[in-house]
Write a structure and sequence with these properties.
Elements (H helix, E strand, L loop, with lengths): L7 H8 L5 E3 L18 H21 L14 E3 L1 H6 L8 E6 L10 H19 L15 H7 L3 E6 L2 H13 L2 E6 L5 H9 L3 E4 L4 H13 L4 E4 L5 H8 L1 H11 L10 E6 L4 H14 L3 E8 L4 H9 L33 H7 L5 E5 L1 H15 L12 H8 L1 H9 L10 E6 L7 H8 L3
Parallel strand pairs: 3-11, 4-5, 4-7, 5-6, 8-9, 8-11, 9-10
Antiparallel strand pairs: 1-10, 2-3
Helix pairs in contact: 2-9, 4-6, 4-9, 6-7, 9-11, 10-11, 11-13, 15-16
Length: 442
């Protein structure tokens, strides 16, 4: 049986909130609804990176932690052999690396990429329109009292479970904008406190992520000087994430890691609404090519991208075209607060639904187990959401379904020279007492 056939047993396992690995069917396997034309292009990746470069001198001035990098917001690429051993992944299946976005400066998570990019794009548009800068100017002009007074007339708002709110709030307030973050009930208290300490207005909502986004969007629509960062629909966020592929390509070259038919790259990305992993997956395929195999990782109770992909392939009959996790009987409650999203971004689905290799789900306790393994083996601190990627190599290399995927794609012989890249997405600013609670989940 092909690895991507969905059986009644698979559906029941999904509804029982047990871990599954789902693989995207090819056109010959079943009906596929073609992803919509999103209007996204490879040129937008370069444009996003150019914007980061223009703002780099200003960012180095605003944030002391960026002075050594001259304003670049980037994370290291790390070889993690001890973690590979702890995961039981033999070197005959390739080597395990970690893209350490949990350590991104300023915001402390992957959201520093897309969130900061969108605030910079909005600031640039306001500054050009208001005559604060002209093309070719030194953007450090935007740190002057006159620029800050201008920005203070505008409000930047976002709906978030936590990390996106941190990136938007911190960047917007640093430039002088009024910043508001609409947060869902499952957002962590320490993230709310960190925002409030930066002078960001935190608006708490009793509902889930989807309701927080809707409330923030509605508020900004009534404000002529308001700007809403829409995680479900934003091309600017998406391209801020996609630009990560350019720096990763340079890091892979420096580490002498090839990506080609004989050296496949498997990438495992934690997924909430889908914007961050979608942007990165899109960027990787555009920049590194077809030999990149991207898999999204989601909590067993919040697999919003998985159910969207299944619906798109006709595997959830009787449900809406864009279903939520509630539609399949799941409750969307998880310790992985950054991934607690009921419905996937249609922009992300349209952009990467046709190129994503698969989606797998992870139990909360497994998130804590792998968080602890990473702490014990490599001395690296992450938050539970960021641990979702570590189940990927086990699914692909050590399960029957994963083995079938490798066989169907002619990859079995290439596995010894393959690279497994786990993308860690948050954790830099987790308070010590909160992190101790994570470790106590042994």
């Amino acid at each position: 049986m092909p690895s991507n056939v969905v059986t009644p047993e698979f559906l029941q396992t999904l509804r029982n909130a047990e871990p599954v690995l789902w693989l995207r069917p090819g056109p010959a396997d079943c009906r596929v609804d073609a992803p919509a034309d999103t209007g996204l292009t490879k040129d937008q990746i370069a444009a996003a990176q150019a914007r980061f470069d223009r703002f780099a001198p200003l960012l180095a001035e605003l944030f002391p932690e960026l002075r050594d990098s001259e304003g670049a917001i980037e994370s290291p690429l790390l070889r993690t052999p001890k973690m590979q051993m702890a995961l039981g992944l033999p070197e005959t299946q390739g080597r395990l690396w970690l893209k350490a976005d949990h350590a991104l400066p300023v915001a402390g998570s992957i959201k520093a990429r897309g969130g900061i990019h969108e605030v910079l794009e909005f600031a640039e548009s306001v500054a050009l329109r208001e005559g604060l800068i002209q093309s070719g100017d030194d953007y450090r002009k935007l740190a002057t009292p006159a620029a800050r007074a201008c920005f203070a007339r505008y409000q930047v708002a976002v709906g978030s479970t936590g990390n996106l709110g941190l990136s938007i709030g911190v960047m917007a307030s640093a430039l002088g904008f009024c910043a508001a973050v609409h947060m869902s009930a499952d957002a962590k208290a320490w993230k709310k406190a960190r925002l409030q300490a930066r002078g960001v207005e935190v608006v708490e909502h009793s509902g889930d992520y989807e309701r927080a986004v809707a409330a923030g969007r509605a508020q900004v629509q009534a404000d002529p000087h308001g700007y809403f960062v829409d995680d479900e629909r934003s091309a600017s966020l998406f391209m801020g994430y996609a630009a990560a592929a350019l720096h990763l390509r340079a890091q892979l070259d420096a580490a002498q890691i090839l990506v080609d038919a004989q050296h496949p790259l498997f990438v495992y990305l934690p997924c909430g609404v889908g914007g961050a992993p979608g942007g990165i997956a899109y960027g990787l395929r555009q920049v590194l090519g077809e030999h990149v195999h991207c898999f999204f990782a989601e909590p067993v109770q919040s697999p919003c991208f998985l159910v969207r992909m299944m619906a798109g392939h006709g595997q959830l009959p009787g449900l809406p075209a864009a279903p939520s996790v509630y539609d399949v009987g799941l409750h969307n409650r998880t310790e992985a607060d950054g991934l607690a999203v009921p419905r996937a971004s249609e922009l992300a689905y349209g952009a990467v639904g046709g190129m994503l290799s698969g989606v797998y789900t992870v139990a909360d306790q497994t998130l804590f187990d792998d968080l602890i393994r990473l702490h014990d083996t490599e001395g690296i601190r992450i938050e539970p959401s960021a641990a979702a990627g570590f189940s990927g190599p086990r699914h692909i290399c050590l399960s029957a379904t994963g083995h079938a995927y490798l066989a169907e794609h002619g990859l079995l012989a290439q596995m010894p020279q393959s690279t497994h890249l786990v993308w860690t997405t948050g954790g830099l600013f987790v308070p010590d007492e909160e992190y101790a609670r994570f470790l106590n989940r042994r």
